[in-house]
Design brief:
It contains eleven helices and five strands. It is of the alpha/beta class. A hairpin with a 2-residue loop joins β4 and β5. 32% of the residues are buried.
Length: 263
């Protein structure tokens, strides 16, 4: 009986997705240099503001990396969470997927999908459009994923092995989200001996942004920006460690020592 109910729910979700794609208005598109911007009529009044935000974030990522994005990409501004879910269901081949309330955007090599930021105050349990700094950093975070995807062996990060901490850590650090508060919480976890012992566990739990971002910060400060960027093409943890000439235990130990020396 349970399997039949699950099947019915799955089919119903797929039907909703198909219906949404059939009924949704045509996307309006504008060429914006490095990207093509897609949006629905309700966001026509917001596009000038959004474009400025996307431009600032693109410039910030290219400045951090010291080079231009290699490929043109698309940005889809979704008018509803249902629209975003429908896209993710299709892109990820997960017809029954429903996003969590904190999920508002995703970025890969060819595309950035984002719920219209002005809706975040209503539909997100974590992100608020009114916080301009955090909103800008979140957009920069996703464009970091676009940049990373364009040089990684797996452009959509679907064929990776043990690098969630690095993918998310790079975007967290490069976007400015690895702030003093997050560093302080990570240092406290290290002091209390509650810090994970493996990199695979760094992108888990409430401290995942601080943990992952601070490891990438350590690599940047210890080995330099050039070396950090040289790691971006790798899609396996073993290759990143090999490039750094470190074991996983050594990287974690050196990272802890680096954080302990921070004021």
């Amino acid at each position: 009986m349970k399997s039949k109910v699950a099947l019915i729910i799955l089919l119903f979700s797929a039907l909703l997705s198909i219906c949404w794609k059939t009924l949704e208005p045509n996307w309006i598109n504008q060429q914006r240099g490095k990207y093509t911007l897609y949006y629905m009529p309700p966001d026509a009044k917001n596009i000038k503001i959004y474009s400025a935000m996307f431009n600032r974030s693109t410039h910030a990522v290219e400045k951090f990396c010291g080079t231009k994005l290699k490929q043109h990409f698309d940005i889809y501004v979704h008018p509803t969470r249902q629209s975003l879910d429908s896209t993710w269901q299709s892109d990820w081949n997960m017809p029954g997927f429903t996003s969590e309330c904190w999920m508002v955007a995703s970025g890969v090599a060819k595309k950035l999908d984002i719920i219209s930021p002005k809706l975040w105050d209503e539909i997100s349990c974590e992100h608020k459009y009114g916080n301009k700094t955090e909103t800008q950093q979140l957009i920069t975070h996703e464009i970091c994923h676009v940049f990373h995807g364009q040089v990684n062996k797996s452009p959509d990060f679907s064929d990776t092995d043990g690098i969630d901490w690095f993918v998310e850590g790079f975007a967290t650090y490069a976007s400015g989200q690895c702030n003093a508060d997050r560093i302080a919480m990570v240092k406290k976890a290290i002091s209390n001996k509650t810090c994970p012992n493996t990199l695979n566990d760094f992108w888990k739990g409430n401290l995942k942004y601080g943990l992952s971002g601070s490891v990438v910060m350590f690599i940047d400060k210890q080995y330099g920006r050039k070396k950090l960027l040289q790691l971006l093409p790798h899609n396996k943890k073993s290759k990143i460690l090999q490039s750094l000439q470190l074991t996983e235990d050594e990287l974690i130990a050196n990272w802890k020592q680096y954080l302990a020396g921070l004021p």
